[in-house]
Input
Amino acid sequence: MRPLRTAEILAVGSELLTPFRRDTNSLVLTSRLNELGISVVGKAIVGDDVSALSATVQAALTRADLVVLTGGLGPTDDDVTRDAVAQALGLDLDEDPSTLAAIEARFARRKLAMPAINRRQALVPHGGVVLPNPAGTAPGLWIERGEQVVVLLPGPPREMRAILEGELGPRLAARSGGRHVERRVIRTTGRPESTIDEIASPIYTPWKTAAPPIETTILAGGGQIELHLAATSDGTPAAAAALDRGVAALVSALGDIVISTDGRPIEAVVGDALKARGWMIATAESCTGGGIASRLTDIAGSSAYVAGGVVAYADAVKTEVLGVPAEMIAAHGAVSEPVAIAMAEGARRRLGADVGVSVTGIAGPSGGSAAKPVGTVFIGIAVPGGPATAKAFLFLGERAMVRTQAAMAALDLVRRTLAS
Output
């Protein structure tokens, strides 16, 4: 039977067409399908309308080997996915006794009587295979249409993942023809996307026609630039070897702006560097409001190297908790190099850490001036064996972007200092 090479994903639910719900299932599905060498060639959100959904399924089948629908498998009248797929494929709906018994048993375990409307969840398009749902009442369905496949999955992400990781995953793997996608991710920071691409494009452009070809994507966001490299493997080591050579070439060209090549975020890289030295870190944050400490402690086991942090938003806290002289703030302003240095030294001293890192800045939208416009940020760092220092930055964007970029820059300053 022909391997599945292309897929379309249809997220079903009128609520997904409002500002109040987001389709996250398609991201999980895309990742899994890509791992199996199945390219997602289209995605769509369709409301709870049988005719519209039926037409969308028929259209998708003209373009893709596999169509995956999520949502609309509940017991209520607006759960129309089963009906729409049956209509699109010209199939009758049959009640599956084993599925009905499983739904009744699930209610019985909770000492509840099954409402009559739940019988709808036992309806299966004729010839379909039931994919048990260990996390809910709505089973998934696998329907073959010649060499094509239509898959129905429940909308709640926990239930969708349970089926995907359970019975569906092996079925898809068996139909993928043994292919899978090898990936590598290079994380960088400190340079804009255009600069990264200017350096990288002469290196990766020839890969598009190489054997095996490598697809390169550059993604920007959160103060960092990521280069994603992907190659389809046929089971031999060729794809992995080509990607490793590609990563080595890009890292050589990009230099010390590379954060990691193994998927680790910058907070994990910093944590590993601190652990290697046996050092503890303390944070003193004004405009980032605890964002640096939050990212550091996102990593499991970070208590081994994070001493603590101070959110010194008010000048009085900078003075009374961190020991920043009031006359320094009066002379230079809270957003200044001397204050950033004093904050880093104060955090290190007061929290008994080896490394102190500080941030003070103007995140906006107000508070800027001609001398210190919105986006002005000073980041200080204090480490053993030398004087504390600070760097000035000017970040562009609205408030949240300034705060995110400031936290990333602070972590990168720590990373660079520990690597020197």
